[in-house]
Amino acid sequence: MSETGNRLRKQLESPNFDPQNYVKQLSQQSDGDRDLQEHRQKIQNLADETAQNLKKNVYKNYRQFIETAKEISYLESEMYQLSHILTEQKSIMESITQALLSTDKDETSKEMQAAFPKETEEVKQRTLTSLLEKVEGVKNIMDTPGRHLIYNGDLAEFDVDNMSPIQKVHAFLMNDCLLIATWLPNRRGTVKYKYNALYDLESFAVVNVKDNPPMKDMFKILMFPDSRIFQAENSKVKKEWLEILDETKKNKVSKDRHKKEEEVPTSPVRAEVSTNPFDMDDEEDTVDGEESVNLSLEWIQELPEDLDVCIAQRDFEGAVDLLDKLNEYLRDQPVTPKVKELRGKVDERVRQLTEVLVFELSPDRSLRGGPKATRRAVSQLIRLGQSTKACELFLKNRAAAVQTAIRQLRIEGATLLYIHKLCNIFFTSLLETAKEFQMDFAGNTGCYSAFVVWSRSAMRMFVDAFSKQVFDSKESLSTAAECVKVAKEHCQQLTEIGLDLTFTLQSLLVKDIKAALQSYKDIIIEATKHRNSEEMWRRMNLMTPEALAKLKDEMRSCGINFEQYTGDDCWVNLSYTVVAFTKQMMSFLEEGLKLYFPELHMVLLESLREIILVAVQHVDYSLRCEQDPEKKAFVMQNASFLHDTVLPVVERRFEESVGKPAKQLQDLRKSTRPVRINPESTTSVV
């Protein structure tokens, strides 16, 4: 760059540069329009040079940009995974803390109830009685002993079908039922409400209704076959209702269960004296069996805590090993109350372990490890007897991985290159998934049907991406044929593991291929009609021997004997229209045979028949209308070329590739037999 250019660059790069002052000074110093044009050209050259340098720097650091982006993506994935692990650890620790706190709270509440039992019950019943005095028609509510009030409040009831407001109600939640009372329009003394309905807590379910403004703060009560929707005053009141209803239902279930367990040993049973001496032996064996279950071993006493530690440390194998050891120890032992208690503690840990393993297989986790990364969680779920769930989660994980891989595949400018990459990614992933599935579920043959169904759905996802790139973008028929050929070749790789999805691939592609064949057929017919409209029936001159040799090679590759229609010079004894039609039709035939499968048999035959019929009809029309004997003889030579040379090659090539004769083409050739000229007249005879 010149010294003037360097000075201009420094001036423009100065931090104190003011464009308005610069333009003002420049206009004052310039002598005329020419100086301004020269200065403008200098600034433009400087801008072009700056842009060129920027482009060079981008190309120079392009690979570094890509590598940095990949590293950032990997780091983001690892941080996301680490965040999930920490969240999982936190939830486990919170659950352990909550369990310990709930145990202390239960003991404290039992002590308080033991200290003040009558006062608490009496206060609750007194409160309920005072409230029910305001409700009309509830005389027998308090006849049930032990019934007391838990919670109450105003609610608005809405219609379930059209979500229109119905009435204002007041709900009374008791320890064993829910009372709904409507507001009285005309109050009488202390009575404010009228009895509407009474539901036992076990007879209905509570469902949260998602907010959809203006309908919000609602929850639904389901009583088969009916349901009712109520709206709370605000979100806080709604949350209280949901939590208290859930807790009250759980307390009632727990209380009923404990009551049944207590009634069994205390029920009065009259002892009978048996005269059978073997009965005494059986009773002694039972007592001895109960006493023989030794649960005082150190590893059994510490088993629940050890399971918690294994789950927190993600030692899934160790946790399942402990469970297998316990099951083996208790296999032939009688079921005693102490064994049931131990089983209850262990089952809670099994549930937590299952939740963690399910989370490990969720699609939200990192999918970079491939199918082998799921083996650990899948194997432990199978050992826990959850093979069906393991199969479902494994296939969902792999479906998400395949979908992510396809979505991340960059669309290249060349369609065939993109299809090569797409097929390589999809079918390699499918093959790896199948091999991993065989390894993980070797002893669970019932899961194989689920894998076959999953394979078909995965193939449908692949075909969607394939068709969008190949058929929706209106690629040429030759490109589409090559892409389908590549997909078929990759699909054949799956047969090495006994999985043949070729039929599924063909059935999913048949609609798009049929549309592509018909579209290309229409293009050929339109091009042929356009050339026919400009037909002069003159011999074709290729101008150079090289062009003639090239045309001969093209015809030879199509299986057509072209030597008899050429001479020593560059002339061809056929019209340009007929030669162009022959090349285009033979190309359509070859590409159509690459796309062929049985469902497309009639589509391909009818397309060929329609294309050939356009050329034959044009030749027949020219023979009937042409009056010049020389031109008529030339037209007849072209007709003979089509009938005796081209059509037999088309029939033979179709039959060799498909294995069936092309009956429609044979009938067409018979119906359009060669035309001969009557030497005594100018008319043609068919």
* Number of E strands: 12
Mean pLDDT: 79
- Could you tell me how far the N terminus lies from the C terminus, measured between alpha carbons in angstroms? 82 Å
Oligomer: single chain
Low-confidence stretches: 115-119, 265-290, 675-686
Portion of residues in beta strands equals 5-15%
Main sheet strand line-up: 1-5-4-3-2-8-7-6
Shape: elongated
Query: Taking Cα atoms only, what radius of gyration do you get, to the nearest Å?
Result: 43 Å
Q: How many discrete domains? A: 4
The helicity comes to 55-70%
Query: In this structure, how is the largest beta sheet organized?
Result: 8 strands, mixed
Structural classification: alpha+beta
Biased composition (Basic and acidic residues): 252-263
InterPro entries: Cullin_repeat-like_dom_sf (IPR016159), Exo84 (IPR033961), Exo84_C (IPR032403), Exo84_C_1 (IPR042561), Exo84_C_2 (IPR042560), PH-like_dom_sf (IPR011993), PH_domain (IPR001849)
Main location: other
Function: Component of the exocyst complex involved in the docking of exocytic vesicles with fusion sites on the plasma membrane.
General description of the model:
With 686 residues, this protein is α+β, with helices and mostly antiparallel strands. It folds into four domains: 19-80; 130-233, Pleckstrin-homology domain (PH domain)/Phosphotyrosine-binding domain (PTB) (PH-domain like, Roll); 298-473, no CATH class; 511-672, Tetracycline Repressor, domain 2. 65% of the residues lie in helices and 10% in strands. It is built from 22 helices and twelve strands. The strands form three sheets. Strands 1-5-4-3-2-8-7-6 form an eight-stranded mixed beta sheet. A two-stranded antiparallel ribbon has the order 9-10.
